[in-house]
Fold these 2 entries.
Entry 1:
Amino acid sequence: MRKFITLLFFFTTVNLISQENDILLTLNFENLTKQEIFQQIENKSIYKFYYLNKWFDNKTESKNYINKPLSKILTDLLQDSDLNYFITDEKKVILTKGLLIRRSIYDENVKQSSTPVLVKNNTTVDKIIGKEVRTPNEYYTLSGVIKSEKNNKPIEGVTIFEKNKNIFTTTDSRGRYSINLPYGKNKIKTSLSGFSSEVYDIVMYDDGTLNFSLLEKLEELDEIIVKGSKSNNLRENVTGLTLIKAKDIKTIPQVLGERDLLRAALTLPGIKSAGEGAEGINVRGGKVDQNLFLLDGGVMYNPTHFLGLFSAINPFTTDDLKIFKGNIPTEYGGRLSSVFDITTSDASTKKFNGEASIGPVTGNIKIETPIVKNKSGLLIGVRSTYSEWVLQQLNNKELKNSKVNFYDVIAKYNHKFNKKNKLKITGYYSSDKFQIASDSVNNYRNKIISLNWEHKFNKKNIGNLTLSNSSYDFDILYDANNNRDFNLNYKINESNIKLKFNYKHSKKHVFDYGLEAKLYNVNPGRIKPEDENSSVPSVNIPKERGLENALFISDNVNFSKKLSLNLGLRFSQYLGLGAHEQRIYESNKPKNSSNIVETNNYDSNEIYKTYNGFSYRVGSRYSLTDDLSIKASINKSFQYIHRLSNNTTASPLDTWRLSDSNILPQEGLQFSLGVLKYINDTDYEVSLETYYKQYKNLIDYKVGANLLLNETIETEVLQGPGKSYGLEFLIKKNQGSFNGWLGYSYSRSLIKLDSQFDEEKVNNGEYFPTNYDKPHNLDIVFNYKITQRYSISSNFSYQTGRPVTYPTGKYTYNNTEYLTYSNRNEYRIPDYFRLDIGLNIEGNHKIKKFAHSFWNISVYNVLGRNNPYSVYFETKNGNVTSYKSSVFSVPIPTITYNFKF
């Protein structure tokens, strides 16, 4: 490469002479490159050329010049390139890429509005379009195509803007754009949620073309699709894993316009609820209490508001929700069916920002502010109801006079001390208060505080210490101005410590290992008279305490690009702690109060019962091709805590009890097999998964069992084996103007309660459906983007009616009519289906404005389907009357306004 002299351009007069005295040259050449032509000129004259070889290609030219000035020859040679030239008085020909060297600070031939570009040693220009001329236009057109670097497909809706001049445009459906930029230097930037931003310093001297390739950033997706990385999904050896980003669900029509992560999860195969308005979630045929809900490592015992109609998880403050329903990692324990791991977003450490929404039922606001610039930040989110008009829409006259309100508050502080140490502290509080068609006022509350410290020992070793405390309590105040007024309350508190390490031994082995301990404190309930005139006796059930310890280790083994295994082992130990009393019942007789042999009393912290268990987790993945994987897993788990409910659906007033000498821990074993396929790279994702689960010691109850304030609760509890199995199918369209998913699942959930005693036997000791057994479930969710600002969305849901026990006959005794009933859960209530629609309106796409807005106009249950919530029967005045209750039996229109600032 010929020596290149660094150029400094000055606007003061320089020692350059007029180029009118060029010498005349005669040149004749064939098939020479420009460098070879310049060499020939040097050989025939006293001129020396200075340039960079990388500016030229190997294209050859043939020319013939007779007695032509050098300036004319160079103008002709460089006319189709972006190169300029300048001839000095020292007979040096200096070539410049795009730039025009001016002779003085003032040039009459150049428009005064244009600004010459100075390029010095420390200045970087990414692209020079054309070459500088003395009579430029005021604006030039830059055009091109923007594609995804991942699949080379055009990207629609990318905003391209000049940061300092407020000029912008967007790409069309083919990824094409065109923008008019001023003459001279410009700084342009691309912007689209879900893709990395590109920034270029561009010098415009002519119309030109610039194409972009953008990298996808899945954590910033702003579509409705529940989407993960293609490579991660295909290569991950954990079956039954679902990731939901909080930003992904904003266009899904929801009840009363409230964005809700848990209701979005219910549209996916294998995740269902017992009914509309039912508190709790059933995963792959499991009970409500078999799901572990974690908020930044702290346990959330009741993740819902308003009797299950709303999630207690604030979508504005949530980053993502991981749902493990197949092979649960060994770091999680204590539940049989699933883990809902909720992660709160980190607060911004750079600038103040926020997000808010106003809807017909709730208001929500989140703010983030730096505490120490680039090191720490604070996030605060508050959500609350301000209207009870929704109760007026319910199909029940008594409910119209009811009252419901709730709120939740979350705060998170994150601090980065250095590259090796990070601290995160989260506090959460939620409160619900309702009075439903009665004189009882019900309150329930969640409290969570968690601390997480992450330390990087080196490139291979990372440690995490999590400390948390969680509590859940409820109380019932009955005030009817009579002698039966009372106050009843219940509380459970859990303190947890977990130390986890990640060790990247090699590309073949990655280890996760650690230990965990949980201390349970349960106040099973107490009732006391509200005043001295009340005849209600005081009852105080003795407290329960338990300690659950665990050691865990797993190895992610990558044998090859095609085959990998995840091998895990978790040893758990449960210790029942005093002070407590345990009742011993006579063997070979049913458990009832008349068969108590003795009662053993234990002092504070004395161990009265110990349970141990080895849980094993095996997951495997084999990639048949780059876009097709087969996965299989086996998962054994133990559960030492139980939620007691003999209602057909879970209630916020259900109680949690610990395992003891009479109530055994639940055990579960799951086998799963799945296939994942991508079509057209990532356009379509198709998955098919099947599972089979076996249970031991599932809990059910005797007919008419009394579970609240029962000191001998074991006399009402029945335990037996269970099983569930199913098939899950999901197809998702991930990209394009039309996107969404279709999910279908077939599942069965059965339990067997057999005993040598008739009072402890149900349905003759045969398997029968659980209360939440709903074989067929179909959900269709789609979003169609009409323009960059307008889109329509819809959600269709169908479910088989849940089981119910019907009266099959009646008889009369003492002039009173009584019923005889079928086997437990032998019949079903009518099937459930619902259609929701929504219109989504984005605010304008101006870059510089105070807030960016988003409107959602939706109709929940647009068909007005009267879906039954429950069917029950009562005997009044000697007559049997049947009832069917529903929650939303009419269309519910809502308008919600969201804005970010």
Entry 2:
Amino acid sequence: MTDAAQADAFGRLGPAVRAALSERGFETPTEPQRRAIPPLVTGRDALVIAPTGTGKTETAMLPVLDAISEREDTFGISALYITPLRALNRDMRERLDWWGEVLDIDVDVRHGDTTDYQRQKQANDPPDVLVTTPETLQAMLTGEKLRTALSDVEHVVVDEVHELAGAKRGAQLTIGLERLRELAGSFQRIGLSATVGDPEAVGGFLTGGRDCTIVEVDVTSKVDFTVREPEVTEEDEQLANELMTRPDIASHIRVIDDIVAEHDSTLVFVNTRQTAEALGSRFKELGTNIGVHHGSLAKETRIEVEEQFKAGELDALLCTSSMELGIDVGRIDHVVQYASPREVSRLLQRVGRAGHRRDEVSEGTILTSHPDDTFESLAIARRAAAGDVETMRIHHGSLDTVANQVVGLVMDFGDVSARRAYDIVTRAYPFRDLDEETFRQILRELDANHVLWLDEEADEIQKSGGSWQYFYANLSMIPDEESYEVYDVSTQSQIGTLDERFVVNFVEPGETFIQRGEMWRINNVEDEESRVNVSPIEDPAGEVPSWSGKEIPVPYDVAQEVAEMRAVAGPQFERDAPRDSVATEFTTRYPTDQNTSASALEQVERHADADAPVPTQDRLVIEEEGRVIVVDAAYGHKTNETLGRLLSALLGQRTGSSVGLDVDPYRIELEIPRGIRAGDVVEILEETDPDHVEPLLELSLKNSDALKFTLSQVAAKFGALKRWKSRGGQGTGLSRLLSALEGTPVYDEAVREVFHEDLDVERTREVLRRIQSGEIDLVKHGSRTPIGADGRSSGREMLTPENADASVVQAVKDRIQDDRVRLVCLHCGDWDQETKVRRVRDQPQCPHCESTRVATLSPWADDAVKALNLDPEERDEEQEKRVERTFRNASIVQTHGKKAVVALSARGVGPQNAARVINNHREDEADFYRDLLEKEREYARTKAFW
């Protein structure tokens, strides 16, 4: 398209819209508008990729509004504007209302909270433009009057399409759009997206693989990143004491405070809701004018904070991904990313929220705190500037989505031929490769669950008595997880929500926790109403609540660049190059300063000084010390998770014992039974057939909680069990469910989802092939190395010390309290629960028989539990010792309660040493932890001889 055609983009629109543009003050189009409006005016399908704040909404809607304004009056809905969040619904409605009033076009919004009166009004007198969500569209397609209204749809805009492309609810939407096509005929599809690595795939996702114009605005030339690890000053030491936190955390708080003071409006992004609350409480102590915003706060609270920020009443918002999408909070002039953003696309999306006044550059600062964090952030920042964005992992062929949408088709038509249903489903991009036999297996499963009737001879599917109930209970593909509403009793207003597991494990009257950056004391819990009543208090040391949500996975390519950095720095340190000179070299390639670079490189320098081989992209280092083997492998979360599960399963097969597993993007840590050595790990990596990875993993998954939990969620989507049975199910119930459903599409989908969400089989195969071809060296090392021991700790949060000694004691306490333990009743044998130490009651008691004869074991203590379950005459000598040790353990817990649980959870502290520490009768809690620390050190010195 010529420059002249682009410049004349507004001239392509009709006189009414051009007049409205002049009235609104839109004199010249933005780049997305200049490039996208001309093809959109002609009715072409298009995907518009541009940063938030560049007028994407108007880019899509001006041609749509223009087309509607020139149509003759019709009864139905002319355009749907679909957004993934209700908050965006509200935002879009406010933005489109002005255009509607000026152009005499009726704009309305519909979602789960829309009143019955408003729904009825929309059915009887449909608006011209309806703003809605993917889930609400599902319900609309089944309504008799609304189907008539939807038959007039000529345009569908999908906002934040990148957010949907990688999720099952997006896969559901693609079939929903094909169902709409059956009703309305072909319609124009317009997608609005943040930067993605594979625009063609996302365009295909939007259009069902039909022709799609891609309009991509280059964001990388208009972003500026700085990666910075603040130096700790004397001021930070003082601030740490005031805020009851570590000096390094205090330095981050100080720097954020300075950045906020230097700018008019700042967004501070963090990766978890827990971090948002913990940091928010510290800023509240400091008196900084910063609000907290995340998805578990009450809707009213979020709206209030958004409006305060937009009005300039707040200087900054501390937020999670809740602010990544295009919620309008006014102009932002700087973005802080607290810790690595983990993904290139996430960094571009977050920092891209700043600036956007024509040719302004979006500025962002990434604050880091340890070497992994810094190297990772440097790699992501460089890749973002170069436009190396991750590709989208679309949910191809999710079988529970097919089940959900087949019932939707039956609700649409009453009865429909299986062939027609198959053709409609496979027009959707994620299901284009679904084979007919699998489709028929899904129909048979739905028939067996009485969700629909299948007449195979007539090749017809029909509604059953259970269709209606199933469909409306499953409008969303987001799994149901119980949550509790939190209410301030003084104002009777809701402040947020808490996960069921947090309520069950922690919430008791009198306990305190942080939410909205403020402290609350729990008054009572109303279980039937799923409500927690609280009162505000002043207390800086409350519990940070837990919310569900997986860790953002670091991609393979980012982790490989971190390995490349080590490969560059390692040989220089081996030649005794000064760290400052190596750091200077890094500052020429990456957007960082000398101090940050040197601080991160100190880890590699220590590693080289220890004469340890540096792990790189072409070298795996396998460390061995005591009962821990660490594989230094920079392959990112999913590949390391896959390799780790493979190693854990095959090592477990060799010994008949469980192998503990923990992974991060740069390490695989294995807690091994006796008899396993690093050579066994090398042997597995060198000899496992890459083509056997998937079946070996599927075999190992059968006993995993991840598969059982996913299976319960998928089974609900197939109508295979009542929804109440799928909530929080554990133990034998889920095991029976797994056995009952094996070999069905339900089981196949659960396995597919675990593989899709958590694992990367293809990369793992590639790594094994490279190892076996000699491209990757395997090097064994007989002790822990600085790089191997510096894994990212999930417990490194906000609460800590007043002085050096207190710092160590507090760190030990935090670590033990966050450790997981296994509680087993030795009286009835029916209770076997895993939980965190901090969640254990003062006197552990079996909920089944109320006995206090409870042993506290390692989560990996399968051998001990197995020995307990054997008939005494069947136990060998080693198993008899385990049983005797377990009963001594339970005796100490019965006598000393939670104090014994804490002592037994310390590393290398068995029943005998735990009893000695407890019998010291320390009145000061700090002295109790000092005694435990001494026992841990003693164990570390001697464990090589055990």
